[in-house]
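Name: GNAT family N-acetyltransferase
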Amino acid sequence: MAIEMVELNNESLEERGCYCLRSKPKSAGYLNKNEWLSERFQEGMKYIKITENYKQAGFIEYTPIEFSSRVVYGENYSVIHCLWVSIPGQGYATKLIQKCIQDAREQHKDGVIVITNPETSWTPSKEIFMKNGFLEVDQAPYGFQLFVHKFGNSADPYFPTDWEERLETFTELTILRTWQCPFIEAATDNIMEGAGKLGIKPEVINMNNREELLRLSPTPYGVYGVVYKRKLVSFHRLTVHSAMKRLKELELL
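Structure predicted for GNAT family N-acetyltransferase:
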C-alpha cells in the first residue's frame, strides 16, 4: 500500500487543489478556497493531504496563530483549522496531527491549538486530539472547546469573553464570512434564499483580515457566522428550510 503526504504550495495548488469540493472544481466555493490558499502560503499556512494508493484519504490545514482564522488569543502557537479523513481506521488522522506537531517543534512554537465543537462536523472531533496529547484549556458558548498541545510551560491560549456584547452589534440579519472554508458560499446562498422567502434582506460582511475577524466574529469558529436581532442564527451551513425555521423563531422574539 502506497501512503504519501503531499504539501500543497502555489506551484501545485492549480494541479492538485484543495481537498473539499474537489468533485466540483468549477464551483465558486472551490475557486474561492484555492484563491484564499494561494494568498496564505506566504504567511506560513500549511495544507497537507494524505493519499492511499494515490487516492486522497484526508488533509490537515494549520497556520501560525497571528494569521489564524479562529478567534483565539495566544502567543507563538500553531493553529489547526481543519482535519478531515475519508478513509478511517488507518491512523491517518494521527499521522497528520503528528506532522503538524513536528512542524511546530521545528519552528520553535510553544505548541499547537485546535478548536472543537461536538455540535457540528464543521470542526474536528476532540477525541483524536486527546489521543495525541491535547488538553482542554478553555470553553466558549455554543459548545466550543479549546484544546492545546504544549511543549513547555508557556501561557495557555484563551477565548475572548465578550460574546454577548458582539451580538448586540447586529440587529439586522447579517452574514459574516471569509473564504477559509469552501462550503461558505453554499452556506451563504442558503441563508440568502431562506431570508428572501421571508422578505428579510441580509447584509453580508466579508472579513478581510484577522483584526476584523477577532473583532466581529460571533463565535470562535471565526470564518462564518449569521446573526439576527442580536441572536446567533448559525456558525455552520443550514439548509434553506432550517434557515427559514430559525429566522421565524427569531421573528417572534
